[in-house]
Amino acid sequence: MEQDSQRFLKVMRGLMRPIVRTLIARGVTAPAFYKLLKSVYVEIAHDAFRIGSEPPTDSRITLLTGVHRRDVRAILSQGGERWESARAKSAMFATVLGQWMARADYRDDTGAPRPLPRTAESGPSFEALVRAINTDIRPRTVLDELLRQGLVTEDAEGRLRISDTARRGPASDADRLVFFAANVGDHIAAASENLMAEDPPFFERAVFYNRLPSEAVDRIEDRARTLSQDLLETLNAESLSQRAADTTPEDGTERYRLGIYFYREADTPAQEPTRDDGGDKN
To answer: What is the pLDDT of residue 277?
Structure first.
């Protein structure tokens, strides 16, 4: 068990490097991250390592995590800082844009999202679209935020259009952070389940090449963007159709996320730390 833990820690070193780079760029120091990491250890042990329906005792959480029992008690009494409200807000904007692009009555003859009036007595309108998704949020509130972020534009005739930037994801820093956590979190969750299971339950594949000219990677990236966008839009339309066909809302108990990414960098060997670099050799 100890050998497995040490082997996994070596893998985690590589996994953590881009995360730590982002933490430093965001001004998050190591002590602040340690404090957060300790609280997440306690929360996960409490939520995911129950025996039957009973939550683990403080002593068992200490045994599982190595966090002192005094700290376990303090963390559990505070409760976790939830981000569901921020996630729900960003998901609302994404749902409005997604249904605008996918619903047949909101697309033109070419299949592109049609320009919409703010309101209309009959037929498609932005207000009708938002009301069909959520009646608790004012359409004007949603529109103001989409306009502010540049995800929707309004022409001289007052018609609303989805901007080209909307296809690249959220524009505001707050929404980008929410989707960063959701997208990366679900990818790691899927990869973790596959790692821990004898029969990996989730689809997870990658294609990777090195020693390619930059121009070749440019062409491959352009092709990947086109294919990926087509796939996402197709599944968006199919998912919307499946949900519309569901006549028993109580059966809608699951969610899914399909994510696609493309990463490239110069193909150079990673520089090993030296004493002059401030590192240490073993």
So the answer is: 44
> 275: pLDDT confidence band, cut at 50, 70 and 90?
very low
Contacts of 193 (CB under 8 A, 6+ apart): 200, 201, 202
Alpha-carbon gap, residue 175 to 182, rounded angstroms: 11
User: Cβ(146)–Cβ(152) under 8 Å?
Assistant: yes
Domain boundaries, the chain: 10-81, 84-168
Question: Which numeric CATH code is attached to 84-168?
Answer: 1.10.10
Confidence of residue 249 (pLDDT cuts 50, 70, 90): low
CB 99 within 8 A of CB 129: yes
Q: Are 212 and 127 spatial neighbours (Cβ–Cβ below 8 Å)?
A: no
DSSP at 152 = E
- What pLDDT does 86 receive? 62
Is the confidence at residue 104, as pLDDT, over 90?
Answer: no
Cβ proximity of 97 and 166 under 8 Å: yes
